[in-house]
Amino acid sequence: MLERARSWFESAYERLLRREIGDPPTHVAIIQDGNRRYAREHGDEAPEGHKAGASTTEQVLEWCGDLGIEELTLYAFSTENFDRPESELDPLFDLLAEKLYEFADAERIHEEGVRIHAIGDVERLPERVREAVRYAEDRTAANDAFRLNVALAYGGRNELLTAAREVAEDVANGDLDPDAVDVSEIESRLYRRPVRDVDLIVRTGGDERTSNFLPWHANGNEAAVYFCAPYWPEFSRIDFLRAVRTYESREESWQRARTDRAVALVRAVAEMELVEARAVTGRLTEQLPGVGAEELSAEVARQDPESAD
Question: What is the pTM for the complete model shown?
Answer without folding.
Answer: 0.77
